[in-house]
Design goal:
about 170 residues, about 45% helix, endopeptidase fold (from Nostoc punctiforme), alpha+beta, 8 strands, six-stranded antiparallel sheet, two-stranded antiparallel ribbon
């Protein structure tokens, strides 16, 4: 009789433990889903697309951490970053690819694509103020891209702005 009570006690304790453990998993999964939907909705709104068009949440989480970081020539930290430094860090963390450090070296290694066939994650190259391959950014969607601007730091801009239309040089992947 004592043995049966002891077994029942063990079963009850195990059930409680298992149910508590599964609640933690569910809570963690729910938090991840909420964070996913939050970033997806935020960037869908910013880029003027449906949330279903925001695919690479790792990319957008990375951008979310860097947006607003000030520009610093030669910088590669959240204290300040230049355009090629930003693209380098993004590619390493999001795509696990190491890129050359300078904009011009990145441009030399690109497998080019046409402007009308751009896809998320493509590298954009610009000739700013007549300087060949002097600026880089990352294409997102809907003619928007993220980059480190000398005047505003890490921002999202439109390729449709005359300044970027005029200075656009090429795009592609490594």
């Amino acid at each position: 009789m004592l043995f049966k009570k002891y077994n029942c006690y063990i079963v009850v304790v195990l059930l409680i433990f298992i149910s508590c453990h599964s609640n933690k998993k569910t809570t963690t999964e729910q938090k991840k889903e909420i964070a996913y939907k939050s970033v997806q909705t935020k960037y869908a709104t910013l880029l003027n697309v449906a949330p279903s068009e925001i695919h690479n949440i790792t990319l957008y989480n990375f951008i979310d951490k860097w947006i607003g970081v000030k520009y610093k020539y030669g910088g590669q930290t959240q204290e300040g970053v230049d355009c090629s430094g930003f693209v380098n860090i993004l590619y390493k963390e999001v795509y696990q690819k190491v890129l050359p450090r300078s904009s011009s070296d990145i441009a030399k290694q690109l497998k080019s694509t046409t402007k009308n066939k751009l896809s998320e994650g493509d590298i954009l190259v610009f000739d700013i103020d007549g300087k060949k391959s002097s600026h880089v950014g990352i294409y997102l969607t809907n003619n928007k891209f993220v980059h480190s601007s000398t005047s505003k730091g890490v921002i999202i801009s439109s390729l449709e702005l005359p300044y970027y239309q005029k200075s656009f040089s090429k795009a592609g992947q490594l």
